[in-house]
Design a protein that fits this description.
Layout (H helix, E strand, L loop, with lengths): L4 H7 L6 E8 L3 E8 L6 H6 L1 H4 L10 E5 L2 E5 L2 E4 L7 E11 L8 H18 L5 H4 L2 H14 L2 E5 L8 E5 L15 E4 L13 H9 L6 H8 L3 H13 L3 E4 L7 E4 L2 H7 L1 H11 L10 H8 L8 H8 L8 H10 L3 E4 L1 E5 L6 H5 L6 H8 L3 H10 L3 E5 L1
Antiparallel strand pairs: 1-2, 1-6, 3-4, 4-6, 5-6, 7-8, 9-10, 11-12, 13-14
Helix pairs in contact: 8-9
Length: 392
């Protein structure tokens, strides 16, 4: 399992900037009661959109999202009717503040859940209308913001020492549909198996999980587990959607990789450096490789250099570096990307070579889907002068 720091960093960009608790004051109208952190948004901004923060009754119990200036504000206004309140009503809204470019769709369920939890606390214990109890709210707001930003979930129990009071929030992020799984793709775990219950999955997925080692292609996994290729792809697609695995290209001695701009960040990220040293160590009984040696070998990858050339020049085994594991680590972290070869037939669409080399399939895909070696492809290309190679 490789910790996918690149993925985690991307997911951490959409943070909650702050929380604002607003309520309707009979004398002053809509007003900000609490902010966490303090002054996260000014009073003038809230006043300009007060009709949406504390809206009319037809907008109650609805998610309302507004973009104003540099902020995006998401709330769920609550109206409570009871004779104990002045004018027989109490209106409040706990709003989440984000950067204007944040996609707040994944936060809407949390905003609604927190508003409904506060409504329950008010109905059962007068948590918001009792000033002595309400003074605990700023601390709750701060804890909600910090916990959701750090872990994506928040648990608060015995609120203000009230019996049977608790808030449970969990952020479920929206997923983009993962790319289609190809036979030549190599699945690799980015989460530890201890984080999920394998026994709860169907038998097909259990078989596939046991066969994943970070180097086997989808087609090889399907063959070893005696599972039909389409079924194996579907199961791997589900693992991909659940952020349990990532897909990387196959690593062979004839493969070519190039560095990406993220290699510069790798040089200054000590945590990532330590992970690279641990993961790529060839012999665990010997002294681990130095970061200098790892960084030097990664910088050997460039256009025209195959893995076997890097092995010949860098001699990673002497430095106690497992070159395949190092490449795998670099692919997951985005430090390297693969350069692929695409054979393109120049003959008409009716020719045999155009059917075998349509131009949109690289060596890896052709080999995987046809069960042949790269050497066989190259032998065939040597005999056919009407096929060119596009390298990208």
């Amino acid at each position: 399992m490789i910790r996918d720091l690149q993925y985690n960093q991307n997911n951490s960009t959409e943070k909650i900037l702050g929380l604002v608790f607003c309520e309707f004051d009979i004398d002053e109208g809509p007003k900000i009661k609490y902010q966490k952190p303090d002054n996260v948004i000014n009073k003038q901004t809230i006043n300009s959109i007060s009709s949406y923060i504390i809206p009319k009754v037809h907008l109650k119990n609805k998610i309302i999202t507004i973009t104003i200036g540099n902020y995006r504000i998401c709330g769920f206004p609550i109206h409570l009717d009871h004779i104990k309140y002045r004018r027989n009503m109490y209106i409040f809204n706990l709003c989440f503040i984000f950067d204007k470019n944040t996609n707040t769709c994944s936060y809407e369920a949390v905003v609604k859940k927190l508003a409904c939890d506060l409504r329950t606390l008010e109905v059962e214990s007068e948590f918001l209308s009792n000033e002595n109890l309400k003074q605990h709210l700023p601390k709750i707001m701060e804890q909600v913001q910090n916990s959701l930003n750090e872990t994506g979930e928040c648990i608060i129990q015995r609120i203000a020492n009230l019996e049977h009071s608790a808030i449970y929030l969990k952020l479920i992020r929206n997923h983009l549909d993962p790319r289609v799984v190809q036979s030549c793709d190599v699945p690799v775990f980015v989460r530890s198996k201890s984080e999920f219950e394998i026994d709860d999955w169907d038998l097909t997925t259990q078989k596939i999980v046991s066969a994943i080692n970070g180097f086997k292609t989808v087609s090889l996994i399907a063959k070893e587990t005696n599972i039909e290729s389409s079924v194996a792809k579907e199961a791997i697609q589900n693992l991909l959607y659940s952020d349990i695995i990532r897909l990387v290209p196959i690593i062979q001695y004839s493969s070519m990789f190039v560095r990406t701009p993220l290699i510069a960040e790798f040089y200054s990220n000590s945590e990532l450096q330590n992970d690279a040293v641990k993961f790529s160590q060839f012999n665990k009984d010997k002294e681990p490789p130095s970061f200098y040696d790892i960084f030097m070998i990664l910088n050997m990858f460039s256009h025209g250099f195959m893995v076997k050339n890097v092995i010949e020049l860098g001699n990673p085994i002497e430095k106690n570096i497992d070159i395949k594991k190092l490449i795998l680590f670099a692919l997951i972290q985005g430090l390297l990307r693969k350069i692929n070869k695409y054979p393109i037939s120049l003959n008409g669409c009716q020719s045999e070579s155009s059917a075998f080399f349509p131009g949109d399939c690289n060596y890896d895909k052709i080999c995987s889907e046809n069960g042949i070696s790269i050497q066989k492809i190259e032998d065939q290309l040597d005999e056919d002068q009407n096929v060119i190679i596009c390298i990208k």
